[in-house]
Amino acid sequence: MADASVPGAGGGITGAAPAVPAAPDPIDGPGAGRRPVRTRRGVLGTRPWVAALFLLPALVLLGALVAYPIGFTVYRSLFDADGSGFVGLRNFGTVFTDHGILTAVRNNAIWVAVAPTVTTALGLVFAVLTERVRWGTAFKLVVFMPMAISMLAAGIIFRLVYEQDPSRGVANAVVVAVHDTFTDASAYPGARPRPDSDLRPTAGGSYTSASAADTGTSADLPLVGIPQNKLPAGARQARPATPRPDAVTGTVWLDFRPGGTGRAGVIDPGERALSGVRVQAVRDGKVIASATSGRDGTYTLPARAAGARLRLPASNFSGAYGGVDWLGPDLVTPSIIASYVWMWAGFAMVLIAAGLAGVPRELLEQARVDGAGEWQVFRRITVPLLAPVLVVVTVTLMINVLKVFDLVYIIAPGNTQSDANVLALQLYLSSFGGGDDQGVGSAIGVILLLLVLPVMVFNIRRLRREGRR
Question: Fewest CB atoms within 10 Å of the CB: 123, 137, 299, 401?
Answer without folding.
Answer: 137
